[in-house]
Design goal:
The complex is a heterodimer of chains A (220) and B (634). Chain A has 220 residues and is mainly α. Chain A contains 8 helices and no strands. Chain A folds into 2 domains: 80 residues, Orthogonal Bundle (Helix Hairpins); 106 residues. Chain A is elongated. In chain A, 22% of the residues are buried. Chain B is of the alpha+beta class. Chain B has 4 domains: 300 residues, Nucleotidyltransferase, domain 5 (2-Layer Sandwich); 80 residues, Actin, Chain A, domain 4 (Alpha-Beta Complex); 107 residues, Substrate Binding Domain Of DNAk, Chain A, domain 1; 126 residues, Substrate Binding Domain Of Dnak, Chain:A, Domain 2 (Up-down Bundle), CATH 1.20.1270. Chain B is built from 17 helices and 27 strands. In chain B, strand 24 and strand 25 form a beta hairpin. Classes of the chains: A mainly alpha (220), B alpha+beta (634). The interface between A and B is medium-sized, with 20 and 28 residues.
Chain lengths: 220, 634
């Protein structure tokens, strides 16, 4: 059921009601979303809710349109991006993603240390080796030396990380399907497990992303 | 829409400004009284302290450069510390008592004006041009701004509109407006890049066109990059040359610098169509600066300036997640895109030959007119059109350690919003301060400070207990609004906004009234001056007429009446009472009607007798009507 954006009798814009982004579009809380359908809905709703349409309307209607179209844009921006969509749903399910990250960031800032992240176990060896290489590279850079073999080694490691990064997205999509199936069949007991696995995939993915960023910085 | 309710589209440019409207199915520019579409964005005060805008103001740039100001758009929404670079290159004279953090005030002659007021004078001129064209009032407008303008610059532009007596229905980004003008007759779906290099600003916008929806996917730019920078570079080179070749230092000579500026601009324009151009400047002490510039030289000189457009363009592509090959069309906007080297750069960048079918000086105003039409309820050609624009810069708030916490990311479709929660640090605390920033940098001090908000009236509670919900909303103009509520008590918190470089509502209100006062006074003074001039013309004609034979043909009563009215006009014309002067002119005009007719007859008969016209009291070129009454039509 889509949220009531317009008056059912006269078709006029209504004040925004606080609903989640899925409900705003009238979508179920499922993750394997057809972004083509989402875009079509976004354009159709934009044509009816955008402030341009209300430029000559009463000020209360203008205010409602502003509220509604900002919510429409916020919802679209969140749902069209696969990662933001997943994170948003996890948050709706009670996972405090921001809080975790924020607390870690603030702690790091307060102590002046780099934000510590738990290394995913399957990456332990690879990350250890890569960090050694990066240390070496930074040292060489300072000394003005150039070691093509080392660069090649790091390049290879980076490529492997990027492959893993892409694979994790596929892993996430597999979890989406499981989630959506569990929602359809009403198997609430499965949802918790899927939720935790998605969270784990996202954390690993973030970890690799930060690592690749470090590599890029070191190689610049 | 009522016929009298015209909504116009205005391009308030760094160098030139234009006003346009939707004429049936196509937008058209409204020319000024001089018949020209472009109104130079120059404001001057003449010797009577009358405000002059546009082409008429240009001559003051050279003659009395301290009484004229140009490129004021560069100062919109900026503070003293932002404009150190500008001050080296532009002859802006700041008010002497200006404080840091205050809205700038610029001296023109002895008066001072804020940048929004100067822009308002330009807008008022455009408004008048449109009113003259329509023969009725114009109170609503869409005004364009560079896409990369920040909140303060947008607010300043909106303030300028209000000061000029315009209800600004929407601020539209210039490249987006241009795409509307192009999209109107193209009606295609695809990805369009708009490269807009104007007089003072550079914008790049990438749009997705889909069945009449113009969705901006990414924008970037530099609000201090444009034709002005090319001019300043050439001026600097010329000044160096002059010092080397002629041994004179003209840096502090306002008139000489303005002459050089005029010459380099002419040379720059010529070099877009010719292989070489001559620079010739008359300098003080009867010296002359001459130099020939080849296009090769010119292109080499400007290379560093135009290359600064590459990084923003690449960033926009990256943000849009697109490769150059995925861009279907490229549109050029802004006078500086006439330079062949700039066109080449765009072509290399996007691997496409750019569109140039619309006049790059006019396309933004035409697009603004299209948007004005859409906002007015649309017409057959615009009814499917909808613009979805983005915010060019991320919005953030300062958190512990002077770090920026981004809450709305750049390139988010607007309107956009974000909600943040705050609490108190001390028991019983009733105020919470929030510092809002705009920009991409990590540290708050590297971002643009937009405003400091003070949430007041938080109910006293134990520290950490209040939960204050603050909603940040960027509207369709790209302007920020903030509202706050304490959730536990449901109490709406008061917000004190201290715009970092903006005018308060009250200040705008005062300027509005002041400008009305000024306008009225200006108008009254102008009327009196014109009436006096007219009186002088009549009196001079009458003095000549009295020497004519026709004077004697009048009855003595008629002559006495004329002389009484003549004295009356002489008496009132030195006063400031316009109405009295006007009435005295009309009365004298009426009384001398027969004299004029008689003089015509005499003129004809003397001409027949072969007498020289000089003796008849009729000046050349005035044979057609009677000389006295003619003054009325002046």
């Amino acid at each position: 059921m889509r949220a009531q954006h317009f008056c059912s009798a006269c078709g006029k814009v209504q004040p925004a009601v606080p609903v989640d982004y899925f409900t705003f579009f009238g979508f179920p809380r499922k993750l394997d979303l057809d972004t083509g359908v989402l875009e079509k809905e976004f354009y159709a709703l934009s044509r009816r809710l955008h402030p341009d349409v209300f430029a000559q309307a009463e000020s209360i209607e203008r205010a409602w349109s502003l509220e509604q179209s900002s919510m429409l844009n916020d919802a679209y921006r969140t749902l069209k991006d696969p990662i933001k969509r997943t994170e948003y749903l996890l948050r709706l399910e009670g996972v405090e993603l921001e809080e975790q990250s924020k607390q870690a960031t603030e702690k790091a800032r307060a102590t002046g240390e780099l934000k510590k992240q738990v290394v995913p176990p399957d990456l332990l060896e690879e990350v250890f080796e890569l960090n050694m290489h990066l240390e070496e590279l930074r040292g060489q850079k300072k000394a003005g030396e150039d070691d093509p073999a080392l660069l090649e080694e790091i390049g290879k490691a980076k490529l492997s990380l990027e492959e893993k990064y892409d694979a994790l997205f596929d892993e996430l999509k597999a979890e989406w399907k499981k989630w959506d199936a569990a929602v359809d069949s009403g198997r609430e007991e499965d949802l918790m497990g899927i939720r935790d696995r998605m969270l784990d995939v996202l954390n690993r993915r973030n970890y690799i992303r930060n690592l690749v960023r470090d590599v890029n910085e070191a190689m610049e | 829409m009522a016929k009298s309710d015209h909504i116009v589209g205005i391009d308030l440019g760094t160098t030139n400004s234009l006003v346009a409207y939707m004429q049936g199915d196509a937008p058209a520019v409204i020319p000024g009284e001089d018949g020209l579409n472009l109104v130079p964005s120059v404001v001057a005060l003449d010797e009577n302290n009358q405000i002059i805008v546009g082409n008429g103001a240009r001559k003051y740039l050279i003659e009395t450069s301290d009484r004229a100001v140009y490129s004021v758009k560069r100062l919109m929404g900026r503070g003293l510390e932002d404009i150190q670079e500008e001050m080296k290159l532009f002859p802006f004279r700041l008010a002497d008592d200006l404080l840091a953090g205050e809205v700038l005030r610029i001296k023109i002659g002895e008066r001072t004006y804020t940048p929004p007021e100067i822009s308002a004078l330009i807008l008022r001129q455009l408004k008048r041009n449109a009113e003259r064209f329509f023969g009725g009032p114009v109170n609503k407008a869409v005004i364009t701004v560079p896409a990369y303008f920040n909140d303060a610059q947008r607010q300043a532009t909106k303030d300028a509109g209000r000061i000029a007596g315009l209800d600004v229905l929407r601020l539209v980004n210039e490249p987006t407006a241009a795409s509307l003008a192009y999209g109107l007759d193209k009606r295609k779906n695809g990805i369009v890049a708009v490269y807009d290099l104007g007089g003072g600003t550079f914008d790049i916008s990438i749009l997705k066109l889909h069945d009449g929806i113009f969705e901006v996917v990414a924008t970037n730019g530099d609000t201090h990059l444009g034709g002005d920078d090319i001019d300043n570079l050439l001026i600097a080179i010329a000044i160096d040359d002059i010092r080397g070749d002629l041994g004179i230092d003209v840096r502090r000579n306002g008139e000489a610098v303005q002459r050089i500026r005029k010459a380099v601009i002419e040379a720059k324009i010529a070099l877009s169509s010719q292989p070489t151009a001559k620079l010739e400047v008359d300098l003080p002490g009867d010296k002359k600066y001459r130099r020939e510039i080849s296009r090769d030289d010119f292109e080499r000189m400007i290379q560093p300036v135009i290359e600064r457009t590459i990084a923003p363009a690449k960033q926009a592509l990256k943000d849009a997640g697109l490769k150059p090959a995925q861009i279907d069309e490229v549109v050029l906007v802004g006078g500086s895109t006439r330079i062949p080297k700039v066109r080449q750069l765009v072509q290399d960048l996007f691997e496409r030959v750019p569109h140039t079918d619309l006049n790059p000086d006019e396309v933004v105003a035409l697009g603004a007119a299209v948007q004005a039409n859409i906002l007015g309820g649309g017409s057959e050609v615009t009814k499917e059109m909808l613009l979805l624009d983005v915010t060019p810069l991320s919005l953030g708030i300062e958190v512990a350690g002077g770090v920026t916490d981004k809450i709305i990311l750049r390139n988010s479709t607007i309107p956009a919003s974000a909600t943040q929660y705050y609490t108190t640090q001390v028991d019983g605390q009733t105020n919470v301060a929030i510092h809002v920033l705009q920009g991409e940098r990590e540290l708050a001090r590297d971002c643009r400070s937009l405003a400091r908000f003070d949430l007041k009236g938080v109910p006293p509670m134990t520290a950490g207990m209040p939960r204050i919900e603050v909603k940040f909303l960027i509207d369709a103009n790209g302007i920020l609004h903030v509202s706050a509520r304490e959730q536990r008590s449901g109490k709406q918190a008061e917000i004190d906004v201290q715009p970092s470089y903006g005018l308060t509502d009250e200040q705008v209100e005062n300027m509005l009234l002041e400008s009305f006062d000024y306008a009225e006074e200006d108008f009254r003074q102008r009327q009196v001056i014109e009436a006096r001039r007219e009186a002088d013309t009549i009196l001079a004609a009458l003095a000549k007429g009295k020497k004519n034979d026709a004077w004697q043909e009048l009855s003595s009563d008629e002559r006495r009446r004329v002389e009484t009215l003549e004295k009356a006009l002489i008496a009132v014309k030195e006063g400031d009472n316009y109405q009295a002067i006007r009435e005295a002119i009309d009365a004298l005009n009426q009384a001398t009607m027969r004299l004029a007719e008689l003089m015509m007859d005499t003129a004809v008969s003397t001409a027949l007798k072969g007498k020289a016209m000089d003796d008849t009291g009729i000046e050349e070129g005035q044979q057609a009507g009677h000389p006295v009454a003619k003054a009325e039509f002046k």
